[in-house]
Design a protein that fits this description.
Number of helices: 5
Structural class: alpha+beta
CATH topology of the largest domain: Alpha-Beta Plaits
CATH architecture of the largest domain: 2-Layer Sandwich
Radius of gyration: 25 Å
Shape: elongated
Number of domains: 2
Strand order of the largest sheet: 2-3-1-4
CATH class of the largest domain: Alpha Beta
Helix content: 40-55%
Length: 181
């Protein structure tokens, strides 16, 4: 795409031949200190997290917290209903009957954990994102089939168009292009 005065540069997109080259360039980019960049491939690549120096996900903690809310909410709700609000003597069984509460406790724990997982993932990934400027690059369609890409965004504090192009070219890119918003 040619540079147009009305468009702003989103980033530099580079294509690589295979997953090994993509991991190698990810290591190089992370060494240089860029913060706003990402890799794209048609399938997960083992070791990419380490190459990109990504932090451990917070999603596990979000799911755990929602699960605890579900567990404590279920126990509190059943205690209130069976012991405090409307105690009913059923065949002489105790009001505080833990085994009878297991199914509901389990179901609410799993339900709220799954809500935490889905909505936490949406939140952490910045979704819904209906359009990404990378979709404007015709070659980027290969990312779902057989393309391996890295994109360094222009919003990065270290971004310099020529330096980024040189870095990606020296890392063995088969194609480099500027992507505009």
């Amino acid at each position: 795409m040619s540079a147009n005065n009305e468009q702003t540069l989103y980033g530099i997109l580079a294509e690589y031949r295979n997953p090994k080259e993509l991991i190698d360039v990810a290591r190089e980019v992370s060494k240089t200190g860029y913060q706003k960049w990402d890799t794209f491939s048609p399938y997960p690549i083992h070791g990419m997290d380490k190459a990109m120096k990504l932090k451990k996900s917070k999603l596990g903690w979000i799911v755990f917290a929602h699960g605890m809310v579900g567990f404590l909410g279920a126990v509190t709700m059943m205690y209130f209903m069976a012991v405090a609000d409307y105690p009913t003597n059923i065949s002489g069984k105790p009001f505080l009957n833990g085994p009878a509460w297991v199914p509901i406790t389990f179901e609410l724990t799993v339900l709220l954990s799954s809500f935490g997982a889905v909505f936490g993932m949406f939140f952490l990934n910045g979704l819904p994102k209906l359009h990404n400027p990378l979709f404007n690059a015709p070659r980027f369609k290969k990312a779902t089939d057989d393309g391996f890409f890295v994109c360094i965004e222009a919003g990065d504090s270290l971004f310099d168009k020529e330096k980024v192009k040189k870095l990606l070219e020296e890392a063995g890119a088969t194609h480099i292009e500027e992507v505009y918003e």
